[in-house]
Write a structure and sequence with these properties.
Strand content: 25-35%
Number of strands: 9
Order of helices and strands: HEEHHEHEEEEHEHE
Family: Belongs to the purine/pyrimidine phosphoribosyltransferase family.
Strand order of the largest sheet: 5-6-4-3-7-8-9
Radius of gyration: 16 Å
Main location: cytoplasm
Pathway: Purine metabolism; AMP biosynthesis via salvage pathway; AMP from adenine: step 1/1
Oligomer: single chain
CATH architecture of one domain: 3-Layer(aba) Sandwich
CATH topology of one domain: Rossmann fold
Shape: globular
Structural class: alpha/beta
Bound molecules: 1-O-pyrophosphono-5-O-phosphono-alpha-D-ribofuranose, adenine
Largest sheet: 7 strands, mixed
Subcellular location: Cytoplasm
Number of helices: 6
Function: Catalyzes a salvage reaction resulting in the formation of AMP, that is energically less costly than de novo synthesis.
C-alpha cells in the first residue's frame, strides 16, 4: 500500500456491527464527500483502464452511480445505469442475485448497448461477495456488450467477489482493499 492509497483508505468511514448484519460497513460517503478523495479515486480507475478500448461505463444502483457517473465524464464516455428492479422506464432484462443476507434483482434497458456491441467497463463502489457485480455483468452481456473489466473503489477480498469475477473472465481492479468484512 502506498501513501496515496493509505490516505484514501483513511477517508472511508468504518461502521462496526452494522445493524442486522453485524458486518463492518465501509461507508464511502466520507470518501466521496472529500474533493480529493473523489477525484483521486476516479483518477486511479481512469489511469488503470486507459488503453483498454472502453466504449461505455455501466454503474450499479445506487453508490455505483456516483463513481461511474464521475468516471464517465472524466473519460468522456456514455453512462449506462444498472438499476434495482422496477425503476427503469423502458423494456428491461432482469437478473436475480444473492446478497450476504437475502436476494435482490437488477435490471438494464434492453437497448442500453448500441447495435453491433460495445466494450463496457462495469463500475461500483464496492465488491464483497460479487453477487451484484456478476448479475450486472450478465445483464450487460445479455444486452450485447462485452465486459472485460470491472472497477471498484473498495474490494473486500475475504468475501471472494474478485475471484468469482475472474472465474467468468472479468478482470477486476480496486483502488483499495480492506481485510475483514
Ligand atoms: O459484492 P456484493 O456482496 O454483491 O455486495 C456489493 C454491493 O452491495 C452494496 O450495494 P447495496 O446492495 O447495499 O445497495 P446500495 O448501493 O443501494 O446501497 C454495494 O454498493 C455493492 O453494489
Ligand atoms: N461491508 C460492506 N460495507 C459497505 N457496503 C457493502 N456491501 C456489501 N458489503 C458491504
Amino acid at each position: 500500500m502506498n501513501d496515496a492509497t493509505r490516505d484514501l483508505r483513511e477517508m472511508v468511514r468504518a461502521i462496526p456491527d452494522y445493524p442486522k448484519t453485524g458486518i463492518i460497513f465501509r461507508d464511502v460517503t466520507t470518501l466521496f464527500g472529500n474533493a480529493e478523495g473523489l477525484a483521486r479515486t476516479v483518477d486511479a480507475i481512469a489511469d488503470h483502464v486507459a488503453g483498454h478500448g472502453i466504449d461505455l461505463i455501466a454503474g450499479i444502483d445506487a453508490r455505483g452511480f456516483i463513481l461511474g457517473g464521475a468516471l464517465a465524464v472524466r473519460m468522456r464516455k456514455g453512462f449506462v445505469p444498472i438499476r434495482k428492479r422496477g425503476k427503469l422506464p423502458a423494456d428491461v432484462y432482469r437478473e436475480e442475485y444473492s446478497l450476504e443476507y437475502g436476494t435482490d434483482e437488477v435490471e438494464i434497458h434492453k437497448d442500453a448497448v448500441p447495435a453491433g456491441g460495445a466494450t463496457v467497463l462495469l463500475v461500483d463502489d464496492l465488491i464483497a461477495t460479487g453477487g451484484t457485480a456478476i448479475a450486472a455483468a450478465r445483464l450487460i452481456q445479455r444486452a450485447g456488450g462485452t465486459v472485460p473489466m470491472a472497477a471498484f473503489a473498495i474490494d473486500l477480498p475475504e468475501l471472494g467477489g474478485a475471484r468469482k469475477l475472474a472465474g467468468i473472465g472479468i478482470d477486476s481492479y480496486a483502488v483499495m482493499s480492506f481485510e475483514g468484512h
